[in-house]
Predict the structure.
Amino acid sequence: MSKKQKKNLTRVICTAVLLAVAWSLPLEGVWRLLVFLVPYAVIGYDVLFSAVRNIFHGQIFDENFLMALATVGAFFVADYPEAVAVMLFYQIGELFQSIAVGKSRKSIAALMDIRPDYANVLRNGTAVTVAPEEVETGEIILIKPGEKVPLDSVITSGETAVNNAALTGESLPAECRVGDMLISGSVNLSGVVEAEVKSVFTESTVSKILNLVENSASKKARSENFITRFAKYYTPCVVIAAVLLAILPPIFLKQSFSVWIERALTFLVVSCPCALVISVPLSFFGGIGGASRAGILIKGANYLEALSAVETVVFDKTGTLTQGAFSVSALHPQNCSEAELLKLAALAESYSGHPIAVSIVKAYNGSMDKTKITKLQELPGRGIQATIEGKNIFIGNAKLMDSVGVQWQPAHEIGSVVHVAADDLYMGYIVVSDEIKTDAKSAIAQLKSIGVHKTVMLTGDAEPTGRAVGESLGIDEIHTQMMPDDKVAAVERLLQKKDAKRTLAFVGDGINDAPVLARADIGIAMGALGSDAAIEAADIVLMDDKPSKLAKAIGISKKTMCIVRQNIVFALLVKAVVLVLGAVGIAGMWLAVFADVGVMVIAVLNAMRALKISM
């Protein structure tokens, strides 16, 4: 409990004691008024002050104004115990809300704990402890067991096990050796390692994650904006209704003003929109916090709400549904030997960082004289054109072969086919295979079980390869041989066909799919651990590479929205019933207290369930 919460709890206890004493004293008249004013002043001074201050600032119709007007009015009609009790229970509700919000913030603060406090930098052969912000790229840092990895770095010496649970939600440690990447915010578990820093702290993964989470509350969902607009018009309307209720019936029905003023005060207490104003944002905050603990970073409540209405999920294939770890599975030379085909392809691909190119270079594993390459050009969506020893070498897909007029041979194996041609002579093709992720099939089944109507896969692979992967996973719609602009066009067509009230999500690796991520209703980057591009491009970031995490994210969003709708319906229904009962004289001030504070407490308790939905 914070100091402020402890202070408010003390005020509540003191007020309860003073109210009990005042109630027990057999006093009348002015003395009875003064005795009840003491506990009222103890518990309500801040509400009265806020109400007056807000009036001068032009913010009249808020909950402080309603509570002040209702309780002060109760004193004027001599309902002293009720006035103190209303303010007391209101403050109990506020205290309860403060504690609930504190717990929600702790769920986010737990993620914030990934921020490293220091870094041990090797300078002149000595380990110097400095702030992570003071370390430059290229410097060597020493990381001991039990310490947080301060910066994104690559191991240069030693091996260890690393806990990435705070980043990905994955409890099993990862074994890391020389050459492996260490992500800032993870925890070194076993060995002492030295690592070369690859990015300064402000550009590190942990810094980007912290900024993302800190700013997530600024993007409100439609439900939150609805509640804000609703309260803006609702509160002045009920105040005007309460005034009319206090004045018109006594005039036209010739009844006592005191009776109708009391009913109007009850009306005001009931009308306070605390339950909605507090519980709805708290639900979203809890949902985002729960998702964060599971390694799902949601950039705002608006994306959490949109995710619950996903109707269509579009997947990139490579690195999303498949491992993205390619290996050469077959060589089919023509007009040359297998060794010559692989050497020529490896030389042409030696400067490319594409996973397929890397796998070809790795398969060759021989010496290459790169000085033989005099010209190199990447052809997006098709392949590479290189000039090697005076020959124009083309390496890529069937579209590239067609564009240069080379007759190519169709492949019969399943995998990505890389054709090779020298000038106008076809040299053969190489088959590169990519394994399907172990949980990809179950992930598609889970999506359909939670209400996703259509799954689509977009890939640049040839028809046989792409269709074989898609059909084995149970994908509804498969599009192959797609260039980057083709993927954008495909998503736009799907957007035109979908229900306007539902959303389309695109799932990719966040590096090569930025245009499509931006075009979809929701862009979801998967396997983004250590990828700056993924964290920046997507609306939702799945920190590990498991497709099944997507179903979990949608499940969290649906449960959060269910809690939000429950609170809205429950609060409005109870208030509507008690407002009517209060207006006709059936509901008194005590029932009004329940309709305000009681409903708020129940709604906040319900909202707090959102903190547990990631478990």
Remarks:
- The two ends are 25 Å apart (CA to CA).
- The chain has a mean pLDDT of 82.
- The first strand starts at residue 119 and ends at 123.
